[in-house]
Amino acid sequence: MSILRKLFTDEDFQEAVDQESLIRVFKDNHIVEHRVIVIRFNESTVITQSNVSDLTYHNRADCEFYLLKL
Q1: What are the DSSP calls for 8-51, one per residue?
Q2: Of 3, 29, 48, 55, which shows the fewest CB atoms inside 10 Å?
Q3: Which DSSP letter does residue 60 get?
C-alpha cells in the first residue's frame, strides 16, 4: 500500500526533484498522472516526466501533487 504526502512548498518540490521521487497529480479530484517524477518547477508551473520523451506541464494552482512512498 502506498502512502501519500502532499507537496505544498518549494522545498517539498525541490526534495522530490533531488530524490527523483514518484508522485501523483490530481486535477478536479481526478488522477491525471501517476508514478511520474518532477523535473522542474516554478511558482506557477510543475513539469513532470513519465518516460524519456513524455513531459507534462501542470498549473500549480489548478493541481494537487502527492509524493508516493511505496
Answers
A1: -SHHHHHHHHHHT-EEEEEETTEEEEEEEEEEEE-SSEEEEEEE
A2: 29
A3: T
List the beta bridge partners of residue 23.
Answer: 36, 67
Q: Which residues contact 23 (CB under 8 A, 6 or more apart)?
A: 7, 16, 33, 35, 36, 37, 38, 48, 65, 66, 67, 68
* Nearest-angstrom CA–CA distance, 70 and 61: 26
Q: What domains lie within the chain, and their CATH numbers?
A: 3-69 (2.30.30)
- pLDDT tens, the chain, 70 aa long: 677 899 999 999 999 999 999 999 999 999 999 999 999 999 999 999 999 889 999 999 999 999 998 7
The radius of gyration of the chain's CA atoms, rounded to the nearest angstrom, is 11
